[in-house]
Design a protein that fits this description.
184 residues; alpha/beta; 7 helices; 5 strands; 41% helix; 17% strand
């Protein structure tokens, strides 16, 4: 059986919900990337499932830090990216390709789940910008989008099938540590 872990970063909680749906379906550990978790903990893992909403600056910063910590480990893993949020159909593949280019892996797959914007939980400076925009335009800014948990369940089922494929079952290879010894 393919050993997997689901990692997520969330501000509003929707990425966490998606991660939990996937983790429950796959019966695997689900962790928040800003909890103490070292790259060495991925040694026995074959597949790392990343669940992120890439819109917010705080989430983007934590996501980047996490990916930087595990970059070498990801080279020998299967990586499945699950984007969550209000991306347009054109934006998500671009972000996914950028992640793959900066963090190559053995196998890379991507999925998308429509998420939500929670105005009430924005950072004060973000909320102030929205309030100013609302005053200037006369438009009411309110929460939009609904978290599509049915799609999250469908993605979980697709990932479960994907993990059964032969190329996803290959044993985990240890990342080769670069030698610190210099020969002269």
């Amino acid at each position: 059986m393919n050993r997997a872990i689901v990692t997520y970063e969330t501000f509003h909680g929707s990425a966490k919900k998606v991660a939990e749906v996937i983790g429950e379906k796959l019966n695997c550990k689900v962790i928040n990337v800003d909890t103490p978790f070292e790259a060495e903990d991925l040694r026995e893992i074959q597949t790392v499932i990343l669940v992120f909403n890439f819109r917010g600056p705080y989430t983007a910063q934590l996501t980047k830090l996490y990916l930087g910590r595990v970059k070498e480990q990801l080279k020998t893993k299967n990586v499945i990216l699950v984007g969550e949020g209000l991306f347009s159909e054109k934006e998500f593949p671009v972000v996914a390709q950028e992640i793959y280019d900066n963090h190559p892996s053995k196998n890379f797959h991507k999925f998308f789940v429509k998420g939500q914007l929670r105005v009430a939980t924005l950072f004060p400076e973000e909320r102030a910008l929205l309030d100013k925009f609302s005053q200037l335009t006369g438009m009411e800014i309110k929460d939009m989008g609904e978290l599509d948990l049915d799609r999250a369940a469908a993605v979980a089922a697709e990932i479960e099938e994907l993990l059964q494929q032969e190329d996803m079952q290959a044993p985990v290879e240890e990342a080769k540590a670069e030698s610190k010894t210099k020969w002269i």
